[in-house]
Write a structure and sequence with these properties.
binds copper (II) ion, Immunoglobulin-like, about 15% helix, disordered N terminus, 2 domains, 6-stranded mixed beta sheet, about 375 residues
């Protein structure tokens, strides 16, 4: 058996035993990257600014007639604030202190970072009343670590994943990293899972390219993350709660077509209507964008579009619009030459009209 595969095998075995054993294996190859991730219930406001910034709303005149079904609370629609779930990174296994992240991450969980040859240990604690899991894309796992078995409310589960050659950028790639998604994936349940909120990114770097101080690739000045998604509150585990948690209580049937339509929020990182603002995109330096999305045949295709600047994708094509299908991820680099605050939105007209828009600022 080749040493590296032997290491992987040992690692997998070690993940089921004690942490000490894992650390012993760390001496053989790569680094063991520990992540303590809580799944927490949160009160979520899709439009925390309180107005539709994209449609040039103001605090005095916040919403367009298109916006109203999605943001105004009545007895027939949920409005803008609901209970959801999200992943938070904690400092350690006591799960007492959340590690904050930049505001433009929105509802996304922590970015799980590793270099090729490393292993990832994700200790996940479910602090909600519902079953969730953590399913990673791109890394190596066995069925016990696939993240399709529910973590029961109050329980924890430790996942071990191998970051193999095939998890990283291909040989000869000019990109030093490649992005992947992770998300809750409780088997046999679709809508009432990812719509609730638990999702995030994994980034795998070429060996030696993860800057441990700045938490990004050594050859870029900034990393940014986007997930385009209709979050369907009519499919959420929290639906029953959300119908009565705020006033007025929703009394219309959850099967009502208008209720269903108004419950489907067009978001980027959980924010709608230009309420997501990316900052600190450095002028003249490289910003790496990791862009993905989720959804179904009806609403899962997205066309992320940057105004003002272009990106270079992994296939070395110059673009300002990407083409995203569910769970597909594009890693692209922007060397911004155009300072200012620019729109960054889905180019599908109905998605944009429903609020799938944000801004980014080059400074
Ligand atoms: Cu879209």
């Amino acid at each position: 058996m080749k040493p590296f595969y032997k290491f992987l095998l040992l690692s997998y075995l070690a993940f089921f035993s004690c942490r000490k054993r894992v650390e012993v294996n760390a001496n053989n190859a790569g680094t063991i990257r520990y992540y303590y991730v809580g799944i927490d219930s949160v009160g979520w406001d899709y439009v925390p600014l309180g107005y539709d910034k994209y449609s040039m709303g103001t605090p005095a005149a916040p919403w367009t007639s298109n916006d109203s079904p999605f943001v105004i609370r009545t007895s027939t629609q949920l409005g803008r604030v609901v209970a959801k779930a999200m992943y938070h990174q904690y400092t350690d296994a006591s799960f007492s202190e959340i590690i904050p992240q930049s505001a433009d991450m929105g509802i996304l969980g922590p970015v799980i970072r590793a270099e090729v040859g490393d292993s990832i240990v994700a200790v996940v604690k479910n602090n909600t009343n519902y079953q969730y899991s953590m399913h990673p894309h791109g890394v190596r796992y066995n069925s016990m670590n696939e993240g399709v078995h529910p973590i029961e409310p109050g329980n924890s589960y430790t996942y071990g994943w191998g970051v193999i050659t095939e998890s990283g950028p291909p040989e000869g790639s000019p990109f030093s990293s490649v992005g992947w998604v992770y998300h809750t994936h409780v088997h046999d349940r679709y809508g009432a899972d990812i719509n609730d909120g638990p999702m995030g990114f994994i980034v795998v770097y070429k060996k030696g390219y993860l800057d441990p101080v700045n938490n990004r690739a050594t050859d870029v000045a900034q990393e940014k993350f986007s997930i385009y998604l209709y979050m369907d509150e009519s499919q959420s585990n929290y639906l029953t709660t959300n119908r009565t948690l705020f006033q007025p209580a929703v009394t219309v049937s959850s099967d009502d077509p208008d209720f269903q339509n108004s419950s489907s929020k067009a978001t980027i990182n959980g924010y709608s209507m230009g309420n997501l603002q990316y900052t600190n995109i450095p002028l003249g330096k490289k910003t790496r964008w990791y862009v993905s999305g989720f959804g179904d045949f009806q609403d899962g295709f997205h066309a992320p579009h940057w105004h003002g600047n272009t990106v270079l994708t992994e296939d070395l094509v110059r673009k300002d619009v990407l083409n995203i299908v569910p769970a597909y991820l594009i890693t692209s680099d922007m060397t911004a030459q155009n300072a200012g605050t620019w729109q960054y939105h889905c180019h599908l007209d109905d998605h944009l009209q429903d609020g799938m828009s944000s801004f980014y600022t080059v400074e």
